[in-house]
Amino acid sequence: PLKVQYRKLKKEFRDSIRSAKSELVLKKLSNSNNIQKAAWQIINDLNPSKKRKNFKPFSFLTPEGVVEQDPRVVSEGFNEFFSRVGTRLNSLQPSSSVECYRSSEHVGPSLYLTPTDEFEVLKVIKSLRTSNSSGKDGISSKILKSCAELLAVPLAHLTNASFQTGVFPQPLKTAIVKPLFKNGNHQDPENYRPISILSTFSKVLERLFLIRLESFLELNKVVCHQQFCFRKGVSTTDAIFNFVSEIVSSLDDHRYTFALFLDQSKAFDVVPHNLLLEKVRQVGIRGK
After folding, report:
1. Are 214 and 233 in contact (CB under 8 A)?
2. Which Pfam families does the record associate with it (predicted)?
3. What pTM was estimated for this model as a whole?
């Protein structure tokens, strides 16, 4: 009887733990503004291999094969590596001419940056994720939100001046860059990716510009409807659903189905700036 009772209590205990965990997960999902992000956060928290590795002082292997441990030398080494990684990788790629993107035909209307006002600025500030992290100016989004009503008017003026002149304030371009370790040898800078912590004011200006850019691209059907990243209202979930639907449809029609997955290393770093500028000019982002 004692053994039976023990097994019964053990089962009840396990059921209680399982139920409590389920309730906690459901609570996190229901309280989150972004369910997909919250779901991935829960999955990563449950996976020990996904635990974020804390950054700590380490040695740095220079291109000459010398191991440096001086923090200043390590910082300069990372700065040198991150600032030149795009140029170095591009030198290994076949050269591309900007002429292949040029067209003599009219490519459509140009983007017009409509002026903003204090109410839109307030809305953007309130939409920022509340955080204590800050850029070089030391002002976090938490601080900015507490002063939003006082700063909305000058920020609106600054944004409109930037839109009119085509100049982004130079101080807002400065970022604190932190190397985040991925895997492999700790001394190899190739195994780190840079995380840039920008000024909170920079994020406000960027978001105000992004609102106008997204509206222009969607209105003029510039972005392909099969692009599932960097578009409002769609996500990787839609990409997976579309992919699975295509496979199921092909199999139902007794057709051969193939899939090709590409993952380019440092994709953003190797984009040639001259081609990018010509491409955005063609889609309507012109002027200053």
Report:
1. no
2. RVT_1 (PF00078)
3. 0.69
